[in-house]
Amino acid sequence: MLYHIYDLQHALLTPARIAAELTRTAFQNPWNPLSHTQMGRTVAAGAELFERVTRRFGEPDWALNETTIDGKTVTVVQEVIVEKSFCTLIHFKRNIKRKDPQVLVVAPMSGHYATLLRGTVEALLPHHDVYVTDWTDARQVPLRDGKFNLDDFITYLREFMSLLGPKTHLIAVCQPAVPVLAAVSLMASENDPNQPLSMTLMGGPIDTRISKTSVNKLAEERPLSWFENTVVETVPAYYPGAFRKVYPGFLQLSGFMSMNLDRHVGSHMKFYHHLIQGDGGSADFHRKFYNEYNAVMDITGEFYLQTIDTVFQRHLLPRGQMKWRDPLSQKLVDVRPQDIERTALFTIEGELDDISSRGQTTSAHDLCYNLSQKKQYHLFQLQTGHYGIFNGSRWKKDIMPRIRNFMRMWDDSYDAIPEKDLAQIPDIKPDRFNRDTHGVAAVRRWLKERDTKPKEKENATQGA
After folding, report:
1. Which of 137, 177, 220, 240 could form a disulfide with 297 if both were Cys (CB 3.0 to 4.6 A apart)?
2. Nearest by Cα to 323 from 305, 341, 336
């Protein structure tokens, strides 16, 4: 019912939205004398703001047609490697004969399209052969194509890794950190020859019992039945995925917005003032960001509920109780991160991350306790929020170069990094890559201090 109400509201606002767009066009027309006045810019700004707030944003284009390698412009072609019902494996093929690390970027299935990682892919392209999981909007998948849950997510990853081969490096951004770790664990348990060389887990909810955020608390405070009855909706009959149970993207977007409502309202007010002032650069930056941020997709209900149950409520992975259902035999198989011995591990956390806070991703190291310490690295990025881990200036200058160097540490068969890039970012040199700087040990000390302080206070109170 909620889905129908949302669609009805959008339909009812269509005439007003069209009128606002016509008004904006008229008052921004350079041939209109009013467009050069304060009143004209104010009217145009208000009209554009209304149109954008009430608009539905479709899936954005990747728009990554070229990259720069060693000072030269190289064309990039987006090609489909595998097309499955719920995901398309995309390859960003560079028009150059160069042997760089092969990277599979696992995009999150958390409401936004994979294009949210455009900045991530863009920064990787100069020195990596990049593949990306492009998840499909569930409301566009016919019901006859079957269901898709967390077990299927893991199965897809295993199939993609087997296709790409053992020279692959994984990058999991946020939500897929759990299924990526699970998939690699299962391959390690089976001694699969296609185990990846490395995996980089960025801001992922490996153990949400640590440093709980508002998102974690919400998932724990309500029973699974509440989520099933409250936020899982049926896709209306007029969509290709008619009658499929989904977690609607518009609900996820509302949740994201409410977490930082003041910031989003302030950002839109600044956008309004920039339009009035004629600050086209700042206004265009706002448009680009929110064109991507407001573009959301539906998630299958079974995937959403299984993730809530497995990751956020029962914490099965960190408790050593997670199982994966084999699609062929239908048997439940234990997920054993302790079996990982070949795949190097790099975890990354942001100091200001309010979705997957400090310590949650780092816990992956405790689970992979049979992995050599020489293959375990961690980066705790100061003054960085969740989005900044994989996008923006700190991602490009501080985080991505370390990932690039980390991947090359485990295979010396790649072409060398151009000297020009080494000169620009000297911090990527091997002798500067120190796992102890804001590393695993530092985060564990912080967690220990946090956990002991309340006890000391309690003991002091009891003693008094």
Report:
1. 137
2. 336
Same domain, 257 and 176: no
Residue 418 CB-density burial (10 A; 0-12 exposed, 13-18 middle, 19+ buried): middle
CA dihedral 369, 167, 112, 2 (to 10 degrees): -70
Helix then strand then coil, % of the chain, to nearest 5: 50, 15, 35
- Residue 230: per-residue pLDDT: 92
Yes or no: say if 365 and 343 are a contact pair by the CB < 8 Å rule.
no
Residue 323, H or E segment? strand 323-325
SS3 83: strand
Nearest-angstrom CA–CA distance, 410 and 198: 8
How many DSSP H helices and E strands does the chain contain?
Answer: 17, 14
Is 450's pLDDT higher than 60? no
CB 101 within 8 A of CB 411: yes
Give me the number of domains the chain comprises: 2
* pLDDT for the residue numbered 458: 38
Compute the distance between CA of residue 343 and CA of residue 188 in angstroms, rounded to an integer: 9
Three-class secondary structure of residue 290 per DSSP: helix
Alpha-carbon distance of 433 to 407, in angstroms, equals 12
**Shared domain check, 354 and 440:** yes
Position 339 in a domain: yes
Of the candidates 325, 260, 250, the one whose C-alpha atom is nearest the C-alpha of residue 295 is 250
128 shares a domain with 86? yes
CB distance 80 to 88 below 8 Å: yes
For residue 376, list its beta bridge partners.
345
Mean pLDDT computed over 378-388: 90
Q: Which helix (H) or strand (E) holds 19?
A: helix 14-27
**Same domain for 390 and 259?**
no
pLDDT at residue 429 greater than cutoff 50: no
| Inter-residue contact 208 to 238 (CB < 8 Å) | no
- The answer to whether residues 184 and 195 touch, using CB atoms and an 8 Å cutoff, is yes
Interstrand relation of 245-247 and 233-234 (parallel, antiparallel or unpaired): antiparallel
Domain that holds residue 286: 2-56+249-293
Give the model confidence (pLDDT) of 202-231 as tens digits. Answer: 999 999 999 888 888 888 889 999 999 999
pLDDT > 90: percent of the chain: 68
End-to-end CA distance of the chain: 57
Residue 84 has pLDDT above 80, yes or no: yes
